[in-house]
Structure formats: structure tokens, C-alpha cells
Amino acid sequence: MRSRSRIVFALLALSLALSLSVRASEPPFKLQNTWKLGGDGNWDYMAVDPTAHILYIARLNRIMVVDIQSGKVVTEITGLTHAHGIAFDLAGKVGYISDGGAGAILVFDRVSYKILTTIPAGKNPDAVVFEPTQRRVFAFNGGSHDATVIDAATNSVITTIPLAGRPEFSVTDGAGNLFVNIEDTSEILRLDAATLKVAASWSLAPGENPSGLAIDTVGHRLFSVCDNNKMIILDSQTGKLIAAPTIGEGADAVAFDAAHQLVFSSNGESGTMTVVRAAAPSGYEAIQTLSTSLGARTIAVDPSTGTVYTVSAALGLKPPASPSNPKRRPTILPNSFVVLVYSR
């Protein structure tokens, strides 16, 4: 028995040593470039079109269109009131922008960047998602606590789905399901894209007040970043809690790199980025905490290269909380907006 125990212990020690060796040999993410784009106004979500090599950045009254090979602004999609999210029909030639101030979804051409049509949504549409199996667009309305469903073929509203709280970010598994964070109830809802019904609701405890959401469609995992410095990882088929690694303060967005099995949380209040390994033998664990910049709260990953983008600017003092600025985001100093580019 003692001999067997010594063998088992030796094997465990060898396994741990190999694991630590692999982890130590992994090159860390580093800041590779800073693109000084300037321009006034706050920012929200970003999205990478990997085929066109374009990074889209929501900047309140416009969308900045940035060439990720040169780091230069190609053009801007203007005429918006309060831009939030960007989504693509990757099998087609169009994209979708949620304009919260106008209560509308804008359809745009991804070659000319021209607005093709405007579709009414609910109050303050935030996240917008293209669902490929039914070819429907879902706009999640933070002000009216519902989801507007749009037929992508006709650009007409099919229905509105009531939700049990304030929706934040949303993702699709590409197989007929959508998932959305509900901020004020700290849960995730699963919607059926065919029946247009809420099919399930799952608690995010111990997470509180979720914002950003990402998905591993192959591994069936949801990654939700929460205000209490937690990344909650759920099974997307059952809603079971898988892990709850600690992240930095003020995370507003999260991104998953399927090719490298990594999850990134952008933590604007602490000015950090947490890198979580999604394929670790010991479970989901943070393998790096990068210093970024205060205010760098949103994030995007280029799936073709693994390059990570976040944005920030020089910031002024925090204002008192108000209905229009409940998170007390500070003022932005003029013409200081930058894109921070990270890779290994």
C-alpha cells in the first residue's frame, strides 16, 4: 500500500510539474500597439469583422470603422443618437447597429458602410444579435425590458418578447438558442429563436449585476462578467454552474477566443484585463492580469489571429451618480481616444 501510495504521489507531482511547466512556457500577452484615433464622445461595444479586417467601435453618435491591418480609420457611420452594439450577418453583406437614443436598429452595407434602412425597436435597444438558423435579428431593449425580433429577409418586426428585467449583452449558439444577461435579477435567460419564447432562466449566483456575455459554442459554456468581480461560467445546455473565477473591477465586456481556448475580461475600473484559460486541466483559472488603462471596459477579439482590442481615453473626474449616468463614468478629455492592441 505504501509503495502504491508513493507511486500515485509521484505521478501527481509529475503531472503538476508538467502543468506548471506548460503554463510558465506560455508567452504572456503584451501591448503591441496603440492607435491614437481621437474624436470626442464616449464608447460602448466593439466588433471585429475578421473577413474584412475591420474593427467597428460604437462612439455614441457614430460608428468608427477601423482597418485592423493599418490601425487607421476607414470611415465613420454617422447620424446616430446613442450607438450601443454591432452585429453581422456573416453569410451576407449587411450588419446591424443598435441606436439606443433613437429606439431603432440600423441596417448597413458592410462594403459601402451606408445605412440601408432603419427599423423601430423598443426603448433603448442595447445588445443586437443575428441568429443564423432562423435568420432573425434580436434587439434587446434595456429601457422597455423586452426583445424586438426582426425578420432579416424583410427588415420587418415579427414580434416583441417581454423579459423579466433589464437585458444586457446577448449571444447565440448558432443552433437556435439565444442567451441574454438580465442585469437587475442576476440571471441568464435562454430564448428559443424558432418559437420566440423564453425557454429557461438560470441564476448567476454568486455573480451579481451581469453585463458582458460570451459563449463557447463547441464546449457549451457561457461566460458572464459581473459587477462583484466574478466571471460566472455556466453550461449553456443545462445552466449548471461550472466555475466562478475572480476578475478585475468594473468589467463591462468579455470575449472568447475559440482557437486558443482563452477568455478575456476587460475591467475598466481597475484598468486591467483578466485572461482566463478555458482548457485548463484543473478548471477555469486566471493565467494573467494585464495592466491596460482606466476606462478600458469593452473588448473584442479577432478570431483569425487571437489579437485582442480594447479602447480608452484620458479621463477627467467622476461625476455624481445620475439617472443618465448611474455608473458615474468620468468625463473624457478631448481627442484622447485610443485603441490598445494586445497579442502574444
List the helices and strands and how they pair.
Elements: H1 2-25, E1 30-36, E2 46-49, E3 54-58, E4 60-67, E5 72-88, E6 94-99, E7 104-109, E8 115-120, E9 125-131, E10 136-141, E11 146-151, E12 156-162, E13 167-172, E14 177-182, E15 187-192, E16 197-203, E17 210-216, E18 221-226, E19 230-235, E20 241-243, E21 251-257, E22 262-267, E23 272-277, E24 285-291, E25 299-301, E26 308-312, E27 338-343
Antiparallel strand pairs: 1-27, 2-3, 3-4, 4-5, 5-6, 6-7, 7-8, 9-10, 10-11, 11-12, 13-14, 14-15, 15-16, 17-18, 18-19, 19-20, 21-22, 22-23, 23-24, 25-26, 26-27
Short account of what is shown:
The protein is mainly beta and about 350 residues long.
Give keywords.
344 residues, mainly beta, Methylamine Dehydrogenase, Chain H, 7-stranded antiparallel beta sheet, 4-stranded antiparallel beta sheet, 1 helix, 50% strand, globular
Could you walk me through the main structural features you see in this protein, from its secondary elements to its overall organization?
This protein is mainly beta and 344 residues long. It has one domain (32-343): Methylamine Dehydrogenase, Chain H. The protein is 7% helix and 50% strand. A seven-stranded antiparallel sheet has the order 2-3-4-5-6-7-8, with no helix packed on it. A four-stranded antiparallel sheet has the order 1-27-26-25, with no helix packed on it. Strands 9-10-11-12 form a four-stranded antiparallel sheet, with no helix packed on it. A hairpin with a 6-residue loop joins strand 25 and strand 26. The longest helix has 24 residues, at 2-25. It is globular. It starts with a helix and ends with a strand. Mean pLDDT is 91; it is low at 1-24.
